[in-house]
Amino acid sequence: MTAITQIWDSLTDEFSNLEVITEPSQVAKLSLDYFHFSPILEAQLKDKRALLVVRPTTEAEVIQVAKTCVKYQVPLTIRGAGTGNYGQCIPLEGGVVLDTTKMNQIRWIKPGTACVEPGVKMASFDKKAREIGWELRMAPSTYRTATIGGFIGGGSVGMGSINYGQLRDRGNLNALRVITLEDDPQVIELRGDDVQKVNHAYGTNGIITELEIPLAPAYPWAELIVIFDDFLTAAKFGQALSDSDGIVKKMVSIHAWPIPSYFTALQHYLPSGKSCALLMICEYDLEAFSDLVHEYKGEITYNKTATEASKGTSILEFTWNHTTLHARSVDSNLTYLQTFYFSLERVEQMYHYFADEVMIHLEFLKFGGKPIPAGLQLVRFTTEERLKEIIRYHEEHGAGIANPHTYIMEDGGRKVIDPIQLAFKQKVDPNGLMNPGKMRAWLKR
Description:
By secondary structure, the chain is α+β, with helices and mostly antiparallel strands. The protein has 3 domains: 3-99, Uridine Diphospho-n-acetylenolpyruvylglucosamine Reductase, domain 2; 106-217, Uridine Diphospho-n-acetylenolpyruvylglucosamine Reductase, domain 3, CATH 3.30.465; 221-401, Vanillyl-alcohol Oxidase, Chain A, domain 3, CATH 3.40.462.40. The protein has 16 helices and 21 strands. It has helices spanning 3-14, 24-29, 39-45, 59-72, 122-129, 148-154, 161-164, 231-243, 286-295, 306-309, 321-330, 344-354, 384-396, 409-412, 419-428, 440-443; strands spanning 19-21, 52-55, 76-79, 96-99, 106-110, 113-116, 134-136, 175-179, 187-191, 207-217, 221-228, 249-255, 275-282, 299-304, 334-336, 339-340, 358-359, 361-367, 370-375, 378-380, 400-401. The strands form 4 sheets. An 8-stranded antiparallel β-sheet has the order 14-11-13-12-18-19-16-21.
């Protein structure tokens, strides 16, 4: 009997009271995310698989899983719905994947705040929260299927970031409850600034079993498409709209031609050669919004009320990283970047310099209290070296790259090792079993 077989038998015995998945195709599916957006990650991660997947339904069952993994020194990787793009939840060293999707209870919702288990789906939560006039502050384009815990563990920005910035900004996460990976797992509650020890930590610093999140007032969000003759006018419109404090909005997404050609379902509203803005605007502000469109010589080709937009596919699903998804469904040689341009001048410089090799897709978000253009550009991939040259050129000219072609947590956006996160990991995961290989601070200690 091999060591792996012995561990397999021991784990399945210990987890006999839990839902355990061992069927190879299901284990493979639950070991992966959308890492294949990156040809670099595709080569590095395509063969990584867990030994088995376990689906706890309670915190007590999570503690059982944690204790068992420590007992047998088996790596443990936490998973939400697996809608991320950077290999956050892919088990580099096999072991156990803990799927949190059955932990999906909303503990309570109050005006301005809520308490949920990690497996609560974002769209389902909003449906309930809107009954009392509130909603999530921000969400990714995978809003219909993504879980709140997964977004906190591996996400960063999304619709709503034009108002609330990034998840790591103070005030965007109130509290967390996490389980440690020690001989006797502990329950730790983190509040205030302490949540940053776990926020966007890829599940390397504790198993989230409960979250307290701040909410935003819910508005009736109209969904609109505005077309423009040229991209730079569209970009200037996006900045002007983002700067317009009196117009309440949730999303400002700008796309240079030929990106709109990849949105098959929207072709009726996107004439050939036109750049476009995909927008979520409060219905109460549409008159002022229309005046702004007129000022920039745009044309509204799509206008759904909030009620109409609540049925069928949301325009959100053509923005943020769904833009990349749609483009790759047409041309699998495309990949993408994530960029903080900070200014329209830098957007214009890159637009002219790279032309169609790097097609610009902007998402406006609040950074340091000011709306800025950020990019999820589509890149015509040729070689890894050329991709590095493109990244280097952006950084040398003042743009900030959140590199989506690495699974190392610190190498993506922040580019620095956080000693506080490292100290917390040493406390809660002394054996380094939680999602090993993803935290550079641990690898270099």
